[in-house]
From TrEMBL, chain A:
NCBIfam families per UniProt: HEQRo_perm_3TM
Stored InterPro entries: AA_ABC_transptr_permease_3TM (IPR010065), ArtM/GltK/GlnP/TcyL/YhdX-like (IPR043429), MetI-like (IPR000515), MetI-like_sf (IPR035906)
Organism of origin: Micromonospora noduli
Protein name: L-cystine transport system permease protein YecS
Domain of life of the native organism: Bacteria
Higher taxonomy: Bacteria, Bacillati, Actinomycetota, Actinomycetes, Micromonosporales
Pfam families named in the record: BPD_transp_1
Chief location bin: membrane
Localization per record: Cell membrane
Amino acid sequence: MEALTAHLSELGHGLVTTVELTVVTTVGAMLLGIVVATLRIAPVPLLRAIGTAYVEVFQNLPLLALLVLFVFALPTIGITFPLFTSAAIVIAVYEGAYLAEAIRAGINTVGVGQAEAARAIGLTFGQSLRHVILPQGLRAVIQPIGNICIALLMNTSLAAAVGVVELTQAANTVNLVEAQPIAVFTGAGLAYMLLALIIGQVTGLLERRLAIVR
Amino acid sequence: MAPETTGANRPMVSVRGLNKWFGPLHVLKDIDLTVAAGEVVVVVGPSGSGKSTLCRCLNRLETAGQGSVEIDGEPLPAEGRALARLRADVGMVFQSFNLFGHKTVLDNITLGPTRVRRIARPEARQQAMALLERVGIADKADHHPAQLSGGQQQRAAIARALAMQPKVLLFDEPTSALDPEMVNEVLDVMVSLAAEGMTMIVVTHEMGFARRAADRVVFMDDGRIVESGAPDDFFAAPRTERARDFLSKILQH
Ligand SMILES: Nc1ncnc2c1ncn2[C@@H]1O[C@H](COP(=O)(O)OP(=O)(O)OP(=O)(O)O)[C@@H](O)[C@H]1O
Ligand SMILES: [Mg+2]
């Protein structure tokens, strides 16, 4: 227990970084997910192909490998980002593929009649998506989206591997000093659990608040 | 403008040589149809004869393989914003209502006017309420579609189409999904629209509606318009064998 209380400030900083990384990445991944899901149902074959390629590439590569490549390979061609930014971009791009698939599943629950009615009153493809299809499709998959966000939270710990001092990295550092892995990682684990529970609560709340009256 | 193209005889819908294929299936064959402004045309015919497909070609929910469709003298644009704009002038009422499930009845109706016509919200709401009043469901404005009966939903869908102030209204079997006791509340709204001079193309098996409101009945079979005439003539003395056959089947029920 002392191993934890003696290092509250380091661990606290790590926790804050984890939360920041999770929030920034979730927002980015949601936007990417919506764009990619939209590409996958676009009326233009080329756009659909781009959407499919995106999902296939990023669902079939390990996140750790992507992180390492991005952080260590890009500088060799002269592109560098701050570590936090790099991690946020890579995780958002990666989770965006999973969110795109969840969102596409949601879109598929919306009947074709809805899209036809939207087109029939003169809405453009973009307007139909924004005002008719996505609001209903997203509502249908709030729960799976919440689960992906929890997976995203857990995956932010991989940022430790490229030097971002988030919660896992902070715990690691503390453990190097204290050599009390059980106490330190139980503490960190509980913090992750708490965050996951919060995401779960928010998901449940959104699901109830946004439920479509049936 | 030339005299013959103004006033009541101006063609509002003009279909020339329309052909449509679904893969190898030839579902519309050389369709020619002109509907004058203010005219009410009822389309009847056996299942699979192409009635829905014809309707859907008129606002390009389906793209025709050959031929032309003009709405109020303007050819249907191929794609994009121009098509969206023209679609706004062609109202459509579906068999399954297709109200937007996540929006209230009022918001269903104001969506098109605010987003397509760029009418200010308060004004759009006011117009929507007037339309709901007219179809008799003003008290349901803040309900969601699922909280309405089928007949009320279809009347809301008609109000949604009317809110765009369309030049033509297409109805594809608007009462087929309704319980029998709700059919008339919808038909009454349609009859009053017809009486007010709305140009309408109505696919229906409600022969009562055809007699009450139609100027013309068009009979389709196997992708062709086989017969076309005034309702009284058509029902009393169909000229073709296929129309006689069809009428004898539906009038038995
Ligand atoms: N999307 C589609 N793909 C393939 N074939 C289709 C499609 N839509 C309709 N068809 C076929 O086209 C033909 C005409 O169909 P349509 O729905 O226009 O007939 P209908 O006269 O409206 O029939 P009903 O009275 O049953 O509604 C039918 O043979 C139908 O199976
Ligand atoms: Mg049909």
